[in-house]
């Protein structure tokens, strides 16, 4: 019999998007089917309407009871907003916001907030203004996204991995009486590729579609062309990639997904995570270590024609000049 870890996912939302709550629950069950065998984790969807127990508590609101019973004991909170913010409760603009705030303050779990990107019915236009205000208030916190089933799946996978790492970290700390450690990714290149540059080329083909995805390949080409081996997780990396795409007349293929690509290359061991503090939840930067960077650089210098072919695939369409075929005699001046 396998030991399984249970992770509770509280689904929060205003009442106008009950169908999306059902969709999230189905996505969680699908995640279990696809991932439980490998991760030894099963996700349990938690909803106030199915998991809260009717209880009378003197001088306490229904929202307070829900928070104490099920929100506080959840491991992940996943909130969705549509075109309504919800009904005010306990000095909060909505019950969903009250749940998010309570969870954030009282739990060490993971929070994800998602907003629907759908046309707003005219009848809900005024109410949607409040949703936009709340979304804008989250800008500095940086923890919201656009709702889709794929985004929910990615969020769950990422947060489950983080919870597993945190549990392993705590276990190691207790076993050896150590401070919590920061997990760093060792270089997969040095594991796979030892010795000469020829050995590197024979064993790690950047242009092999099986070895590397298109976006991974393009990021490594960017690192070579921009002579960059350090990728900060703030907006500076994004801005540099956008500038590189502009300078080379490329579509925004890489900039649209750059942080996902960095994470992918980190998981595969190509990049190394660095943290400013052992208490940081997320890496401050990703590093292509010096020896690996030199190997990549020599490799790309020998394969510049292949780089040109790859770059051509991502060229932005040339905008036609509307006045190019206009005869001067047709001008009004």
Characterization of this structure:
- The chain is built from 13 helices and 8 strands.
- The longest helix has 28 residues, at 149-176.
- It folds into 2 domains: 5-167, Rossmann fold; 182-313, no CATH class.
- It has 333 residues and is of the alpha/beta class.
- The protein is 47% helix and 11% strand.
- Helix 1 (18-39) packs across helix 6 (149-176).
- The relative contact order is 0.09.
- The strands form 2 sheets. It has a 5-stranded parallel beta sheet with strand order 2-1-3-4-5, with helices on both faces.
- Residues 171-197 have low confidence and may be disordered.
- It has helices at residues 18-39, 48-51, 62-71, 95-106, 125-137, 149-176, 188-192, 197-203, 214-225, 235-247, 258-267, 290-301, 304-313; strands at residues 5-12, 41-46, 76-81, 110-115, 144-146, 230-232, 272-274, 285-287.
């Amino acid at each position: 019999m396998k030991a399984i870890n249970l992770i509770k996912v509280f689904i929060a939302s205003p009442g106008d998007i009950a169908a999306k709550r059902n969709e999230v629950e189905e996505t969680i069950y699908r995640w279990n089917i696809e991932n439980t065998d490998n991760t030894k984790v099963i996700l349990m969807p938690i909803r106030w309407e199915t998991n809260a127990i009717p209880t009378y508590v003197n001088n306490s609101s229904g929202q307070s009871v829900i928070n104490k019973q099920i929100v506080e004991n959840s491991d992940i909170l996943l909130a969705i907003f549509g075109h309504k913010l919800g009904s005010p409760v306990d000095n909060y603009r909505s019950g969903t916001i009250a749940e998010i705030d309570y969870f954030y303050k009282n739990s060490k779990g993971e929070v994800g907030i998602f907003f629907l990107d759908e046309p707003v019915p005219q009848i809900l236009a005024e109410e949607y203004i409040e949703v936009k205000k709340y979304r804008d208030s989250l800008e500095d916190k940086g923890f919201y996204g656009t709702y889709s089933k794929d985004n929910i799946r990615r969020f769950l996978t990422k947060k489950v991995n983080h919870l597993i790492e945190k549990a392993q970290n705590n276990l190691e700390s207790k076993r050896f009486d150590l401070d919590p450690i920061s997990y760093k990714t060792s270089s997969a290149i040095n594991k796979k590729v030892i010795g000469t540059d020829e050995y590197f080329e024979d064993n790690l083909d950047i242009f092999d579609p099986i070895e590397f995805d298109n976006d991974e390949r393009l990021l490594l080409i960017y690192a070579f062309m921009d002579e960059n081996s350090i990728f900060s997780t703030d907006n500076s990396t994004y801005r540099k990639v956008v500038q590189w795409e502009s300078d080379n007349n490329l579509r925004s293929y890489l900039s649209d997904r750059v942080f996902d690509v960095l994470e992918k290359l980190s998981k595969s061991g190509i990049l190394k995570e660095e943290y400013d503090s052992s208490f940081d939840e997320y890496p401050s930067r990703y590093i292509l270590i010096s020896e690996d960077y030199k190997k990549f650089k020599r490799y790309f210098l020998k394969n510049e024609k292949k780089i040109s072919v790859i770059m051509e695939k991502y060229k932005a369409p040339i905008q036609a000049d509307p006045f190019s075929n206009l005869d001067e005699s047709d001008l009004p001046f």
